[in-house]
Amino acid sequence: MEKRILVVDDEWNMRNLLRIYLEEEYDVIEAEDGVQALAFISSIHVDLIILDIMLPNMDGWKICKEIRKEKHTPILMLTARNELKDKIYGLDIGADDYLEKPFEPEELMARIKALLRRSIINEHYSENALMFGDQFIIIKTESRTVFVKGEKVDLTPKEYELLYLLANQPQRVFTRDLLLDVIWGMRDMRDLRTVDSHIKNIRIKVKELASTYNPIQTVWGVGYKFNPVDGSL
C-alpha cells in the first residue's frame, strides 16, 4: 500500500510541483489552508505532512500545534524562512524536520524517506518485535503481524506462528517433524506437506514486497531455518 502524504501550501504552483515529485512513489493529497488540512487529518490516515509556514488565516506553526494535540504523524516544515530561530521554534512545537525553499528534489525525497523510516521504527519499538536487516523485516509479537520494507505481509495465523518460531531462533535448523509438533501438534498423523505448503505460501507473500528476499532457507536433508536479511546469523 502506498504511503499517503498531505501537502499543505496555499500556492497552487508549489502544490503541483510537489505532486510531480511525489506521485510516482506516494499517494498525494493537497490542502490549501489549515482548515482543509485539519479536516483531512481528522478524517483519513496520513503517513506524512509537508507543511508550509506562511499560510492564510492559520499559519503552519498553529497547524502543527493543533496536529500534535492528537497525532504523531511526521511533519516536514517547508518554508522560505531561513532564520535559525524559526527552525528551532518549529522543531520545539513538534515539527520533525525543516526544509528551506528553494530545494532540490533529491533532498526532499531523502528527507521524506528518512522521516517515514523513523516513523516505522518508532511505531514498532512501542511493541515487542523481532527485527532484522535494519528493520527490513519486522515481526511483531503482540499484534502477531509481519512487515517487510514497511509494508504489512498478509499471513494466516499458522504462517505467522511458523515464521515467528524460525525467526526467534535464527541459528537453528528445524526439522519438518519438529515444526509439525510445535505448530500443529501433529504426533500421530504425519503429513510433511503441511509444513512445505505453508513455507511456500510465506515465501510467495514476502516475495510480493521484496522480490529477491527469501525469508526461509531450505537446509537439504534436514529441514528449514530463518534467513536473516544480512546473512549475519
TrEMBL record:
GO terms for biological process: regulation of DNA-templated transcription. It comes from the Bacteria. Pfam families: Response_reg, Trans_reg_C. InterPro entries: CheY-like_superfamily, OmpR/PhoB-type_DNA-bd, Sig_transdc_resp-reg_C-effctor, Sig_transdc_resp-reg_receiver, WalR-like, WH-like_DNA-bd_sf. Keywords: DNA-binding, Phosphoprotein, Transcription, Transcription regulation, Two-component regulatory system. Gene3D superfamilies: 3.40.50.2300, 6.10.250.690, Winged helix-like DNA-binding domain superfamily/Winged helix DNA-binding domain. It is found in: Cytoplasm. This is Response regulator transcription factor. It comes from Metabacillus sediminilitoris.
